[in-house]
Amino acid sequence: MSQNSTEILWDTWGVPHIYASNNISLFKAFGWSQTKSHGNLLLKLYGQARGKAAEYWGINYLESDQYVRTMGIPKRAQQWYEKQSPEMQTYLDSFAQGINDYIQQYPDQIEEDLKQVLPITGTDILGHFQRVIYFHFLTKPQEIKALQNLPSQAGSNAWAIAPQKALNNHSILLANPHLPWSDFYLWYEAHLTAPNLNLYGATLVGMPALAIGFNDNLGWTVTVNPIDNADIYKLKLQEENYQFNGETKSLKQEIESIKIRQPDGSFTELQIGIKQSIHGVIIEQQENIGYALRVAGLDRPESLEQLWNMGQAQNLNQFETALQQLQLPLFNIVYADKQDNIMYVFNGLIPIRSQGNWENWGGIISGDTSETLWENYHEYEQLPRIVNPENGWLQNTNDPPWTSTNPPMLNPEDFPPYFAPKYLGQVTDILRSQRSIELLTESDQLSLEDVINKKFSSKLLISDRLLDILISTTKALANPIGIEAAEVLDKWDRQTNPDSRGAVLFMLWATTLESKGLFSKPWNPETPLDTPTGLADINTAVAVLEGIAAQVELLYGSLDVPWGEVVRMRIGEQDVPARGGPGKLGSFQVLGIQAAQDKTFQVVFGDSFMMAVEFSDPIQAQGLTVYGNATQPNSPHRGDQLSLYQQGKMRPIWRDRPMVEQNLELEEIL
């Protein structure tokens, strides 16, 4: 290999190990790798981020284009590109070049109708980042339509364990995001090496910098935090003006033209008017009322550079220097390193507000006064943060910062009331958070193996709160089918493993009853980890169980049908029994499911990328990209990791070149 060439060693799981002589070549090879694994998807996503998908692929993409154009993503992407440092511009261009080069060399690997998006540019990558992070994570089309905050579709688990809690006296990091198993939510696993860089981890497909990773000295992961930094303001309108501070201000207006490809190849054109107030873009107008959306961080174009800096940091001080740039608008950071440090930060851009608590800002805000209009953000030093807690562990499961360790070290009273929900009881997945803390505190010391085994715990914590009372009451009150159901639940192992019998019955019962209210005792700050508990309405609970039992018997022929027979994980040609259950029922191994055509349920969401790292010498690490590291139709890596996941196993992460070479599938030299 010549001095300047770049090698990509593809291992037997389809993970690229990139060996580059400089950073520019590294980014180019990373773009190439992602295209080899996900080329069709990449072009589709970049086309959508341009707001031209309907022009490329027809009317089904019109709604997507209207959203992208209304939010100003393509124009802002160009502005952001111009504001990148010269170095970062070069890296973005190189990543785009890698995509273009791969398709030029292997045109037959990409669907024809996607190629009209080419060439990809550095601006496209920033547009894609903006669309995903700002306009699907931070705020979403569904929320904007409904004019309200909706529960997030994104979840995650993260643990950091300090040496005093670790069996081998080395800190341990567990990274475990839960996202939908499709589209721009897919994770891409990679190993990036260049002079002074040996970084392993994952990023969302189409992104040029790792979002979760570890190097020779430290590692970090992210979880979505309950941060409110997108607000909807209600404005009083008069024709093309709005009231603000007792004065009349005119709305800024522009017209965007969207081309729509017709089935015969011709185009029609749709013009959309976009209006803006001082608050932001008008997302809805009803006669003399308008609703404006304000999104934090659209003035901070350097998120990707910050992620790149985080990956290059070699100690806690350098890592926090990267975080202090405060470019990422959201995400908790959970961190561990070789120097025995662990850290949690409720990271993000929190607007400095004049008043109000977290709940108030979740609704519609009056927009006719500057009292409610925020301009600036809290500094890094003001964010909730814990370094090296005495008990030796930190966790986050999308809960507020106050439960990141126990006993709590952060007090909500020490922070403005609009930072985060004040109580654990306000969280959608409270049982998953409680289960996380339970798993961490039930053992005095944890090895890397223990952490991996606990990660695969599929026990439904809700069963501890409800099952005993449900079983005894049903046996006393129910019809024969109810009594039979109670006997199945009595024998159930309270888990959602492929062979767990009773899990299907319980899951359908709990999710059906949930809308009617499950618990007799709500969450209580006095017993924050043991409530809610107790059955709210015994008679309804028994009646629902009888109804569900009849249904299960009819559909599956028996009440104790195994979980994995009914709940399936399907990717490409793979169709395997599922292991794991809904986080809201208290499973730490999270799978979100929806009914499929054939009486089964199919996983559509949940555990996606996972990684457990022990900062020993040498570092020990295992990982898994649950659905596989590729989506290209001919790739052998679509779904090839599902069988490991189903067995509750991760795979060794190969970082040393001899190990990579022992497990080599393909070598490419660029």
Account of the 3D structure:
The termini are close together. It is globular and about 70 Å long. Helix 13 packs across helix 16 (538-556). The model has no long low-confidence stretch (mean pLDDT 96). The chain is 31% helix and 25% strand. With 670 residues, it is of the alpha+beta class.
For the biggest sheet, the summary is: 10 strands, mixed
| Strand ordering within the main sheet | 19-17-16-8-7-6-5-2-1-30
Helix content: 25-40%
Low-confidence stretches: none
**Number of discrete helical segments:** 19
Mean pLDDT: 96
Roughly what fraction of the amino acids lie in strands?
Answer: 15-25%
Shape: globular
Q: Structural class given helices, strands, pairing? A: alpha+beta
The number of E-state strands comes to 30
Radius of gyration: 25 Å
Short description:
By secondary structure, this protein is an alpha+beta fold.
List its salient traits.
single chain; 25% strand; 30 strands; 670 residues; 31% helix; ten-stranded mixed beta sheet; alpha+beta
